[in-house]
Amino acid sequence: MTTPGPNGPVARLLRYANEVHALAGRCGREDLAKVLAACAGRWKDECTDIVVAGAQKRGKSRLLNTLVGHPDLLPVDADVATNCFLSLRRGPALTAVVHRSTDSGPVQTPITVESIPDYASMRGDAGKRRDVVSVDVTLDTPLLAGLRLLDTPGVDSLTVGHRQVTVAMLQRADALLFTLSAQDQPVLRHELEFLAEAAERVQAIVFVLTKVEDSANWQSLQEENKARLRTFVTQAVAENPARAATLCPLLEAPWIPVSSKLAEAAEARRREGRQERADTLRARSGMDVLERHLRGFAEGRDSARGATVVAAALSVLDALTAGAQDDVAAGSDDEGDVTARLAEVETELTGLAELAGRRRAGAVANTFLGREVAGIVAARVAEIRQPYENAIATLKTQAQLDKYMAELPESVQRSLEAVWSQIVYDVENLAKGTLNAFARDLGLDPVELAADGRAMPSLTQVQVKGDLAADDPGHVDLVRDVLPASSMGLSFGGLAAALLGPVGFILVAPAIGAAIFLGRRSLEKVQRSQAAIRGALRDQFAVVAREMTLDLERMVATWRVGVEQTADESLMRRRKELEGRRAELKTASTRSAADRRRARQSGEDRITAIASLTTRGHELRKELAAAVAALGAAPAGTPGN
C-alpha cells in the first residue's frame, strides 16, 4: 500500500511494523509474526468503518437516519436485534440485503427497505430475524463516500449477546461514535466499562450527545458525563497504571451535541424555500460539526488504524523479550545465570501444573451450570404463569371463560416470547460470570459469549378445554344440586305464602328453586372449568420449562466445552514454550565457549532491538493519538463545536 508522506507517522508506522515482523521471524516466532500480518490486511480496505454504539434509547438510529437523509430508513425506538448489525454504505441505489449464517453457509437475501425492521429490530418478526447476522443498506449520499456506518445493538440490552456483538464489531472499527442522550440519565457504569473495552481497540472516539433540542440543561448533563468519565478513568488507572495509555485519551475525546429533530426541521424549511431559517436550524443541530469529524476520519483513516498496529507490535515485542533474556543467560560465563533462569522456568512450569489442577476442579464446578439453568427457567416461567392463575379466578361466567380461552393460546405465546429474552439474559449472565471466573483463574482473557440470535425453541401452543361434563344437561347430581335448591325454594316459598297466600307458594316456590338450581349448577360449572384451565396451564408451562431448559443447557454446554478447550490449548501452548526454553537452557552447558558467546551476543542484540522498537512504538502511539485528535477539527477561522 502506498502511503503519502514518506516521513509522516503512518509511513513510519508501516516501516516500524515491518521491522517488528522481521524480528519475530528471525527469532523463529512465526506465530507472533502472523499477528502483525493479520493487522496489515486491514490496510487494503479503503472504506473507513465507523461504529455507532450506545445504550438503548440514546438516539443512535435516528442520528444515522438524519446523517444519511432518510428519516425512516432504520427502525427508531426499537433496539437492533441480537447478533445483528446494520451497515450503511454508498451505492448507486437504495437497496437492502440480509446476510444470514446458516448450517449450509452464508446466505444473502435482497429485501425491501421498508421491511428492514422485520429482520433487524427486536420488534420485528422472530422468524425473519432468525440467523440474521447483518443487514447491508446502500444509498447514494455524498456523506458515505469512503465511509461505512455500522449501527449496533445497545450495549445494555436484555441479552449479553447484544453487547458482545458490539464489542466484536470494534475489531473492524476505525472510529467509534458513542451516543448519550441529553434527555436521559448520565452515563452509567456498564457504559463506561464498554468504553474501556472500546479504547483498547479503537483510538478515534467521539462522544455524541443526542436530543439536545428539548433539554434546557444539556450543558450541565454533558459536564456531569465528563466528570463521571474522569472519575472512572482515574480509578481504573490507579488500580492498573498500565491502562493509562488506552484510557487517558478518552478524557481528550471530543463531545458533539446534536439534534436530529432540528436537522430534520432544517431540511423541511429548505424544501419550503426558507433557506435562511434552514441554515439557522442546521447550525443549531450540530450535524455539520459531526459530519466534519466523519469526513476527517475518512481522510485520516490510516492514522486511526495505526493504533491497532502499534498495540499488536508492542505485544509481540513483549513476547520476544523472554527468549532473548534466556539466550543472554545461556551464554553467560557465570553458570549461576543459567541456573537462575532455569529456576524461573521450573517455577513457571510448577505454577502451570497447579493451573492444570485448578482447570480440572473448575471443569467439575462448571458441570453444575445446567442445574442452575433449570432453576432460572422454572423461576421465570412461574412468574408469567401466576398472572394467568390470578386472571382465571376473576372469571365468573361461562361466556367470560369462553372468551378468555379463545385468546389464551396467543396471549401465552406472547408472554413466553417476552420472557425468553429475559431467561437468555439471566443464563448468559450466569454462564459468563462462572466461565469468566474459570478463565481468570487460569490467567486467560475474559470469555465472549453470545446467544447467536437464539430463537425461542418451538413450543406447542396452549390448548385448554373446560369441564365437558359441566355442559351436559343430563348430568345432574340429585343430592348435590337438586335437594339444596328445592329446600331453599320451599323456604322462600313459605315466605311468599305468608305474603301472597297459597297462590304465591304454588307459583314462586318452583321458580325460585329452579333459579337456585340453575345458578348453583352454572357456578359450579364455571369453577370446574377454572380448575381445568389452571391444570392445563400448569401442565403446559411444565412442558415449556422442560423444552427451554434442554435448549439452554445445550447452549451452555457448548460454551463450557469451548472455554475449556481454549483453556487446554492455552495451557498446552504455554507448557510447550516453557519446556522448549528449559531444553535450550539445559543444553547451554554443553555448548562451546564460542557458541555461548554468540548466543549471548545474539540475545543482547535482540534485547537492544526490542528496547529500541518498544520506545519507538510508544512514540508512534503518541503521534498517532495527536493525529487522530486533529481529525475533524475545525479549520482556522471556523467556529468550533
TrEMBL record:
Membrane as UniProt keyword: yes
Top-rank lineage group of the source organism: Bacteria
Region annotation Disordered: where it falls in the sequence: 582-601
Transmembrane segments: 492-518
Keywords: Membrane, Transmembrane, Transmembrane helix
Stored InterPro entries: Dynamin_N, P-loop_NTPase, TRAFAC_Dynamin-like_GTPase
Pfam families: Dynamin_N (PF00350)
Location of the Dynamin N-terminal domain: 50-211
Protein name as catalogued: Dynamin family protein
Organism: Streptosporangium canum
